[in-house]
Design goal:
The structure holds two protein chains of two kinds.
Chain A (H helix, E strand, L loop, with lengths): L17 E2 L1 H18 L1 H10 L6 H15 L2 H16 L31 E3 L6 E6 L1 H4 L1 H9 L7 E6 L13 H12 L3 E5 L8 E3 L2 E3 L4 H20 L3 E5 L7 H20 L3 E3 L15 E4 L2 E4 L10 H19 L10 E9 L4 E9 L9 E7 L9 H14 L2 E5 L10 H12 L2 E10 L4 H5 L7 E3 L6 H10 L4
Parallel strand pairs in A: 3-4, 3-5, 5-8, 8-9, 14-15, 14-16, 16-17
Antiparallel strand pairs in A: 2-12, 6-7, 10-11, 12-13, 13-15
Chain B lengths: L5 H16 L4 H19 L1 H23 L6 H35 L17 H16 L9 H9 L1 H4 L7 H9 L6 E2 L1 H32 L6 H32 L17 H7 L2 H15 L6 H19 L3 H26 L10 H24 L2 H11 L11 H30 L4 H16 L13
Helix pairs in contact in B: 1-2, 2-3, 2-6, 3-4, 3-5, 3-6, 4-5, 6-8, 9-10, 9-17, 9-18, 10-15, 10-17, 12-13, 13-14, 14-15, 15-16
The chains are: A alpha/beta, B mainly alpha.
Chain lengths: 481, 476
């Protein structure tokens, strides 16, 4: 058993194998030529991506591919790929998955869900493949934290590419659109989380001229580049989240970041992407640069010594917020067994002639076979603007109490008239909630609508300024056990 | 340009062809190989080449000065200056940000504030490896033990020879310079061994290491709470297998490619997971680096000459340095420290046994060998948690999930278990397979060989996972 511990017998120089160079090298070239026919499509793609794309080498690569196909290399590739697919299929997964939530069907369009009024319901497909891209912050702590946290969501896979000193302003230095195109083709993301900006507020070269940073022309050009990135993601079936740049220690630099953020936010909103601002989180109440952060009992520096990048604790602070937004916007699931999953839904209301969006917080025990009570909250706010704390509290209280929260996006009053006729039927169809009890909290003025809800509405008057966390805790405590 | 890529295949083969064509003229051949090696470095990043050329020039002339100053008291000053230049450059690239970051934390703890810029430098590829080669050259020259290059060309090729430039093996002068300075061989030596090394390396790196990474270890270490305790234990051993497969696979390819050029690079791994104690492990793992640590840190500190306590301290210093070499993070420092503690404990146990009159050099009974092997591999595997996670909080998170004793998790592919067990088993039986393959290949007739090689490559393509993991040790 331990024979390999014995010393190795030294090779005898006299009996050493010696191969004439001509034979050895011709043999190796023969192998490379044969394998070139086999791998010709890959070689051609590599050449097309390289600086040789415009040279005669491209023609040579195409010729090799043609000859290879004529010699039957295509059939060999098919055979090898077939074997490979079989080999790469999971051999045997030995342990059952950990209480993964029932996945909702992909985008569902249901008409006349309860036979009352025709509605078009949208349940976004849960996001599972997350591509994280950006400059130095993504290469370092922020990206590391995202790469660490995203896989905690059920079934989620993450791929990260961070390149320091890069930007959307200088594709001549690093071509992010082309890189995103390649990454999207390889990884097939359904969500792209991006963070650019630190190097973006610079003059943009267009042709032979430079467009000066901060000018209207620059805003337009930079906006076009952000749009190009969002469009590439869309083309590959992915949504986008743009993480805004944080406040900076250097006030002049902070002003530049405000400019970059404003363009990114404007374009993101126009193009249906999500912009997550980090400015308030990285600023003191008076708007100045924030030095420290406290998460639980841990207090530490938010940023590294340069006043630009995040320390690990700061990255955790930002990533928790970004992922909280992603959870309720893109149905990521729950990253922690103590948290309910958040699912975004919407339907087209025929009465209101617009879409009504809501997010459901569903405990793990809620399935189509085991439905749970639901409490609906109107909070007059837009959930993309919430801070992280109420979101987490809704997740915690839903999971701990075994019921679902539904939070309706936007002002309560316009939705109140369709509360019973459209919202409730829609959410009982879309979510695993039972119809026996409605527990409703909302701002003053929706009592009438609530009173129509049987059998036992519970009304918690909520001022829009009230902290949602308090609402969650109060209503949860009044639930019948 | 990693080894198993189309670019490298064409680059390597073109370089090999020209190198053999010009072999009659050694200067031309060496110059061409140097040019090819510099092109290889430049293809990664021009800065990498600039740093390599700078290091080569400085070390060559400092070495020359050391030779000229033989017997002169100023010689020590020259040596220290040379060492400071080498280690200063290495430290600046690899550790500046780590130092500034931790200094900021320390001062913040003391309610002080300092704002030093983080430079976010990307350490030039291979800098740790060729800097250590250069340090060995300077110290050996000072000790009059180095083989001296005839000229700058010899030394530059010694520093930059592309098969070993990016991640070793770390060559000392006697291991490579005589081969560079000798006339080129008339024939390719040991083609069968070269083919076996390259094939073994490709299978280890492209197939097995990538397989366990993609099927379990990457996800398990990123998100341990999603896995059961059993799966996390498997991930620890699978990662232990992965590091070995990845790094020894890379080294095998480097040595195989080196042999095709007529250069026999030193061995870096000697079936380390068959080690029966921690000292044995370090004689088998990353041999050129562990030898370097012994020769240039442990022995100069006094080695085991000054009593047990001083020996343990020397071991601790040496292995904390080993951890720091791997990277600027507390995870590596803890990993190195753990190995220092283990080696000290092992050394202490030897001392106790000697005092009890037991001959520690006599062959150990089988049960002791098996027990020692079990302890060693478990220690190495679990210490890797700090190595892989890099930072202490993530490592502790892994341990928490590991000891939560949950039995339901994301699941794992049975193939990972198979690869992990096979990797450990091949540490016992691998040499027999390797030598058997070499013998079989030597008996193959020349025209049959290329057909066999194509068949082997197609088989590899059919079995390998999609994509390939980056070489772990490129980061060091």
């Amino acid at each position: 058993m331990f024979e390999s511990l014995k010393p190795r017998v030294s090779l005898d120089e006299a009996t050493r194998e010696k191969t004439p160079p001509r034979v050895g090298i011709l043999s190796l070239w023969g192998v490379v030529v044969a394998l070139s026919f086999y791998g010709a499509p890959t070689i051609r793609e590599e050449v097309e991506k390289s600086p040789l794309a415009e040279s005669p080498v491209r023609g040579v690569a195409a010729a090799i591919e043609s000859v290879g196909n004529a010699l039957g290399a295509g059939a060999a590739r098919g055979l090898v790929d077939g074997i490979r697919q079989r080999v790469q299929a999971p051999l045997l997964v030995l342990v059952q998955p950990l209480g993964a939530p029932d996945l909702l069907p992909a985008t569902t369009a249901t008409a006349a869900v309860s036979g009352e009024v025709a509605r078009h319901h949208i349940s976004p497909k849960p996001k599972r493949r997350v591509l994280v891209i950006g400059a130095s912050s993504i290469q370092f702590a922020l990206g590391v934290e995202l790469e660490h946290e995203v896989p905690k969501y059920p079934g989620a896979k993450v791929k990260r590419l961070g390149k320091l000193a890069t930007s959307l302003a200088r594709p001549d230095f690093f071509d992010w659109p082309a890189t995103l195109e390649t990454l999207a083709r390889q990884f097939h993301p359904d969500l792209v989380i991006a963070n650019f900006g630190g190097n973006c507020a610079q003059d943009i070269p267009v042709g032979s001229q430079m467009i000066e940073a901060g000018t209207p022309k620059w805003r337009k050009e930079y906006g076009a580049r952000v749009k190009q990135m969002i469009d590439i993601a869309k083309k590959h079936g992915a949504e986008s989240i743009y993480i805004g740049m944080p406040n900076m220690r250097d006030p002049a630099f902070a002003e530049k970041m405000k400019l970059v953020n404003s363009v990114q936010e404007e374009v993101a909103r126009a193009e249906g992407a999500t912009f997550v601002s980090t400015w308030a989180m990285t600023s003191e109440a008076d708007g100045s640069y924030r030095e420290t952060v406290q998460i639980g009992k841990k207090r530490g520096l938010l940023r590294t010594s340069d006043g630009v990048h995040f320390k690990p604790l700061g990255a955790k602070f930002i990533v928790d917020h970004v992922l909280a937004v992603a959870e309720r916007t893109f149905s990521l699931g729950a990253s922690d067994p103590t948290l309910a999953r958040a699912e975004a839904h919407s339907f087209e209301s025929p009465s209101l002639a617009r879409s009504v969006e809501y997010v459901g917080y569903l405990p793990k025990k809620a399935t189509s076979e085991s439905k749970v009570p639901v409490a609906v909250i109107f909070h007059d706010g837009k959930w993309s603007d919430w801070p992280t704390h109420p979101h987490r509290m809704l997740q915690k209280t839903a999971e701990a109490n075994g019921f679902a929260w539904v939070v309706v996006n936007g002002a309560a009053a316009p939705i109140a008239p369709v509360l019973a006729s459209e919202l409730m039927p829609d959410l009982t169809t879309a979510l695993p909630v039972d119809g026996r009890r409605w527990l409703v909290a909302g701002p003053p003025g929706v009592e009438e609508a609530i009173s129509r809800l049987a059998p036992a509405p519970v009304f918690e008057a909520v001022d829009p300024a009230t902290d949602l966390t308090d609402v969650a805790v109060n209503v949860a405590s009044r639930l019948p056990k | 340009m990693e080894f198993p890529t189309i670019q490298f295949v064409f680059f390597g083969l073109a370089t090999l062809t020209i190198s053999w064509l010009v072999r009659q003229n050694k200067v031309v051949q060496s110059s061409f190989l140097l040019f090819a090696s510099y092109f290889f470095a430049w293809r990664f990043q021009p800065l990498f080449l600039a740093t390599l050329v700078g290091s080569t020039l400085v070390n060559f002339y400092v070495g020359r000065l050391l030779v000229r100053l033989k017997g002169d008291p100023r010689r020590k000053v020259v040596l220290v200056t040379g060492l400071l230049l080498n280690l200063g450059t290495l430290g600046f690239y690899k550790y500046y940000d780590f130092f500034v970051d931790n200094l900021g934390d320390l001062l913040a703890f003391l309610d002080l504030s300092v704002h030093l810029p983080l430079l976010e430098l990307v350490a030039p590829l291979g800098i740790s490896f060729y800097t250590f080669q250069a340090v060995a050259y300077l110290v050996d020259t000072y000790r009059d033990k180095a083989v001296q290059p005839r000229n700058l060309l010899d030394f530059a090729l010694f520093m930059a020879f592309f098969p070993k430039f990016a991640a070793g093996p770390i060559c000392r002068t006697h291991q490579l310079l005589p081969q560079i300075m000798a006339p080129a061989p008339a024939a390719i030596p040991e083609l069968s061994r070269a083919v076996a090394l390259i094939a073994t390396g490709l299978v280890k790196k492209m197939l097995l290491a990538s397989y366990v990474a993609q099927k379990l270890t990457t996800d398990a270490f990123l998100s341990p709470s999603a896995y059961s305790s059993l799966e996390l234990v498997l991930a620890v051993f699978a990662y232990t297998a992965q590091v070995y497969l990845d790094f020894s696979g890379y080294t095998d390819i480097a040595r195989g490619v080196g042999l095709l050029f007529g250069y026999d690079l030193p061995e870096n791994f000697n079936y380390p997971y068959s080690a029966t104690d921690i000292g044995d492990f370090w004689r088998r793992w990353h041999i050129t680096f562990s030898t370097w640590l012994r020769e240039y840190i442990y022995f100069p500190l006094g080695g085991s000459r000054d009593g047990p306590m001083r020996t343990y301290l020397n071991l601790m210093i040496t292995f904390v340095a080993c951890g720091i070499w791997h990277g600027a993070s507390w995870g590596f420092i803890v990993w190195g420290g753990l190995h220092g503690v283990a080696l000290s404990a092992y050394k202490a146990s030897l001392d106790v046994r000697r005092k009890m009159g037991i001959d520690t050099d006599s062959p150990r009974p089988l049960w002791l060998l098996v027990g020692g092997w079990f302890l060693t591999i478990n220690f190495c595997a679990f210490a890797r948690i700090f190595f892989k996670t890099n930072d202490i909080p993530t490592a502790l998170e892994y341990f928490r999930a590991l000891f939560a004793f949950t039995y339901r998790g994301n699941g794992f592919d049975l193939g990972v278990l198979f690869v992990t067990i096979s990797t450990i088993a091949l540490n016992f039986f691998g040499r027999r397979f390797f030598d058997g393959f070499v013998g079989w290949h030597e008996r193959l007739r020349a025209p049959i060989r290329p057909v066999v090689w194509v068949g082997m490559m197609l088989l590899l393509f059919a079995l390998k996972p999609y994509g390939m993991e980056a070489t772990i040790y490129f980061a060091f």
